What we know:
Blueprint: E1 2-4, H1 6-14, H2 16-24, E2 32-33, H3 34-56, H4 62-76, E3 81-82, H5 90-108, E4 115-127, E5 132-144, E6 149-156, H6 164-167, H7 172-184, E7 189-196, E8 201-205, H8 209-228, H9 250-271
Parallel strand pairs: 1-5, 2-3, 6-7
Antiparallel strand pairs: 4-5, 5-6, 7-8
Helix pairs in contact: 1-2, 3-4, 3-5, 4-5
The structure holds iron/sulfur cluster (SF4).
Amino acid sequence: MTMYSHSKLSTFEQCQLKFKYRYLDKIISETKSIEAFLGTIVHDTLEWLYITKSKENEIPSIDKIMEHYANKWEEDDNENVLIIKKGLIKKDYFNKGIKFILDYYMKHRPFDEKTVGVEKRIVIDLSESEGHKIQGYIDRLVHNPEKDEYEIHDYKTSNFLPKKAKFDTDRQLALYSIGVKELFGKDKNVILIWHYLAHNIKICSQRTDEQLEQLKKDILELIHKIESTTEFPPNKSALCSWCEYNSMCPLFKKEVSNIKQNTEEKTLDIWD
Ligand code: SF4
């Protein structure tokens, strides 16, 4: 049985060398981009908010939430958290997170939707005969008792807001909706909801059963491709600067050395 995840599939699509480093060679990188770090702390804080509300039957105050956020940031921060963008410091990202949480809190208070799970693990059987499964974690799962439908909530901390069409073809939450239907009933309506915290907006989408069946087939096809791949070439993209393996990637090292060389040559030209 092979277990896949949305992130494993996306990594293969983005760069096969990165896929090899992470999933075949199982190299664990010590470094983390500040964007990924911020995302983890914000997710943890929102998770804490809903768990605390459910345990104590009371909404935690904004001061308590900020205290949790700041403590978690301090606890997890270290020299391996890297800032890639020039001109920014850690404090800028810390403040960004404060704004995300404050805006979310003000907009969604009193958080009275019926949350039935946070960081909820789901496992989907793609093909019993081949034994391929996909697992994922839903940021927050909500049940709407009036409509007897489920909502999959996902928090995004990126500044980049994709076009609406992208949400109607997004794979990750569509996959999760297969898992939710397997758990609660195939006839259940499932709404996909993305919270773009930097923009303080939420975007919704849905899939038909036919679309979900097609998605399963497409994923199986991609898995077959992955499992028959023997060469894992690097793929240069704008994301390379944020790749945790760039210090060992031959293509990235070459790019950096070319940039350095060009800069040195230009400097020499000035002095000649
Ligand atoms: S630096 Fe770029 S090309 Fe190299 S492994 Fe990472 S994503 Fe792939």
